[in-house]
Amino acid sequence: MKCDEIDYEIIGESMQMVEVELDPSEAVIAEAGAMNYMEDDIEFEARMGDGSNVDQGFMGKLFSAGKRMITGESLFMTHFTNRGNSKRRLTFAAPYPGSIIALDLATLGNEVICQKDSFLCAAMGTKVDIAFNKKLGSGFFGGEGFILERLVGDGMAFVHAGGTVVEKKLNGETLRLDTGCLVAMAGDIDYDIQMVKGFRSMFFGGEGLFLTTISGHGSVWIQSLPFSRLADRIIQHAPSVGGKRQGEGSVLGSIGGLIDGDR
Asked: Which of 27, 114, 167, 170 is a plausible cystine mate for 184, CB 3.0–4.6 Å?
C-alpha cells in the first residue's frame, strides 16, 4: 500500500512538536495520546491495525496489536483523517524533552529500525512492526533490549529521542557509542556490543562495562540523553525516605550503575 504524501513542520527546540498538514481524505497514524491539537474537519478513531494492510482481517489486526504491546506501545493506534474540503493541520508532541526525527522512508530503503517506544506518528500506509535483536549480548547489554521497532513504507515517519539528536552516515566505518544512545538505523548496519578494555577503564571510567558498536553502510541516529538515563537522574534526586534517597544503598543498584555507565 502506498503511503499518503504529507507535509510537515517541526516546531520548537527542547520540547518539540511536529505539525502535519493533511489534504482532503489524507490520513496519518499516531501513537495513542501523542496528539497535541488539531484543526476542524479532522476526525480520529482508535484502531488495532496501522492501516498498512486493508485486507488484514480482525485476527491479523489483533496479532499486530499484540506485537506492538510487546514493544511497550499501546494496544490501539489512532488514525486521524481530514474529512473536510481544504487542507487541515494537527500536531503531535513527544512525551519528554528531546528531539523529533523526520524519516523519509522512501530515501532510506523503505525501512528503518528504531528503539522501542520511539514511534510518534507516520503517514497512512506505514507499517509499524517489531524486529528482534538476534544477538544475545546486544539484547542484554545493548541498552535497547531484544525487541526493536520496524517502520516500513515509502512515506514520512516521525520518531522522538531524548536531548539532541545527530545523524551519522557510515560508509564502511565503525562507530562506538554509549549503550542506549542509539535511536534508529537504516541500511546495512551491524549492531553489537563490546566490553570495555582495561580493569580501571571498566570500573572507574564512568562509561560502564559495555559500549555499543555499529558498522556498515547506512545512516544511524544518536541521542544525547536516553530516557533511562534521565529517569535514573530523577530517581537519584527524589525526596528522601527515612534519611536515604530513593535508589541509594543497594548493592544491585551499584552493580547496575556500573553496567550502564551511570556510576
From this structure: 114
Q: Are 118 and 65 in contact (CB under 8 A)?
A: no
Output b/e per residue, 76-108; b: 16+ Cβ within 10 A: ebbbbbbebeeebbbbbbbeeebbbbebebeeb
Q: What is the mean pLDDT of residues 41-60?
A: 73
Question: What global pTM score does this model have?
Answer: 0.76
> What is the CATH number assigned to the segment(s) 7-164?
3.60.160.10
* The C-alpha cell that represents 219 in the structure block: 545512516
Q: Which residues contact 177 (CB under 8 A, 6 or more apart)?
A: 211, 212, 214, 222
DSSP 8-class letter at 71: T
Q: What pLDDT sits at residue 48?
A: 76
pLDDT at 211: 79
Residue 59 phi, psi dihedral angles, 5° rounding? -65, -35
DSSP state of 244: B
Among 80, 67, 85, 187, smallest CA distance to 128 is for 67
Q: pLDDT tens digit string along 133-146?
A: 655 444 444 445 55
Residue-range domain boundaries for the chain: 7-164, 228-260
